[in-house]
Specification:
Blueprint lengths: L16 E6 L6 H14 L3 E4 L18 H11 L4 E8 L5 H14 L4 E6 L4 H6 L7 H20 L3 E4 L4 E5 L12 E4 L6 H8 L2 E5 L3 H17 L8 E8 L5 H15 L3 H6 L1 E2 L3 H13 L4 E6 L5 H16 L2
Parallel strand pairs: 1-2, 1-11, 2-3, 3-4, 4-7, 7-8, 8-9, 9-10, 9-11
Antiparallel strand pairs: 5-6
Helix pairs in contact: 2-3, 3-5, 6-7, 7-10, 10-11
Length: about 325
């Protein structure tokens, strides 16, 4: 990913990157470390975790699940090459000044490989269970907007005072500064009226999850319109997509993945299926290519344990070289 000068939005490269987004549920810490090292050795461009306290989608809170920030510290230590991050942190779960401090710490631990994602949050069950307010979506988007402003300023500026409705800092410093001259800030979500507007105004990148290539292209067009309204060159914001990983190597495996997707997502299964690699390796390369053709700068497959390990190896050894033109 391209690093623009601090305090500015710079032109970004349109060469796509290919990563893996991992839900840290139903896996031991040892399993996660093995997986990260394998992905890093395979040359993936990006490895991320998600920000949940419970499993996603919600299954009653009974599945083992690790917290995101502490997990990222281990991810930074276990990898050497891939960019790392979280797509995305819920703006309501942490004071944004604390998150800025964590971001610069992770950037130093990783040698300048960290990227920060922010979103409005959606997992009402975990929020209420852990005692976090879960206001209406308009309020959560206001919180996202303020949090993005606080984080960006603390990462870039020497001292920051900010008095918002939801977050405040007073003559705050965030030292040391990140290793990167501008640590990238991503905004995640599909909301056309507010989320994409906030991304156009605040972010270096925008990410959407579990949408078809056609829908991704349409949303990217809406983002272009918001960039133009903000007087920003649309080419200066990266666009990423998370695609659910349901690859299998034969018909029986694909049928198993279909059942798993339907059982996990229930009423949302059709939407998620449209943004999934529910296919074999040959079709996967074609589907990933469709996202790139519609403007994706980053395509990340999203893993939820258990997955088909042979299919994951096929993705790393066959699909990635094919989409990179190797």
């Amino acid at each position: 990913m391209v690093e623009p000068p601090a305090g500015t939005f710079a032109m970004v490269s349109r060469m796509a990157s290919f990563g893996v987004h991992i839900g840290q549920q139903n896996l031991s810490a040892a399993d996660l470390r093995v997986l990260w090292r394998r992905l890093d050795a395979a040359g993936v461009d990006w490895i991320s975790v998600w920000d949940h306290f419970y499993e996603a989608p919600f299954q009653g809170g009974g599945q083992a699940h690790f917290e995101a920030l502490t997990t990222l510290g281990a991810l930074a230590a276990e990898t050497r090459h891939a960019r790392i991050g979280c797509l995305v942190f819920c703006a309501g779960y942490r004071n944004p000044a604390l998150l800025a401090k964590a971001a610069t710490t992770l950037d130093h631990l990783s040698g300048g490989r960290f990227e920060l994602g922010l979103g409005a949050g959606w997992h009402v069950q975990e929020a209420l269970a852990y005692g976090y307010p879960f206001p209406d979506i308009g309020t959560r988007l206001d919180m996202l907007d303020e949090a993005a402003a606080v984080v960006r300023r603390l990462l870039d500026e020497d001292r920051v005072t900010f008095a918002g409705r939801h977050f405040q800092v007073d003559d705050a410093t965030c030292r040391p500064k990140p290793v990167q001259s501008r640590l990238p800030l991503w905004v995640g979500g599909r909301g056309e009226k507010r989320t994409l507007e906030i991304a156009a105004r605040r972010a270096d990148g925008w990410n959407a999850a579990y949408v078809s290539a056609a829908e991704f292209g349409r949303l990217a067009g809406v983002l272009d319109q918001w960039c133009e309204a903000e007087g920003r060159d649309p080419a200066t914001i990266r666009r990423g997509v998370n695609v659910a990983f349901h690859m299998a190597l034969d018909a029986a495996g694909l049928e198993n993945e279909r059942r798993k997707l339907a059982a996990d997502w229930r009423g949302q299964a059709d939407r998620v299926r449209s943004g999934s690699l529910l296919c074999g390796p040959g079709e996967a390369a074609e589907l990933v290519g469709q996202y790139v053709e519609r403007g994706a700068d980053a395509v990340n497959v999203a893993l939820r344990a258990p997955w088909d390990q042979d299919a994951l190896e096929a993705y790393l050894e066959e699909v990635l070289p094919a989409v990179r033109g190797a």
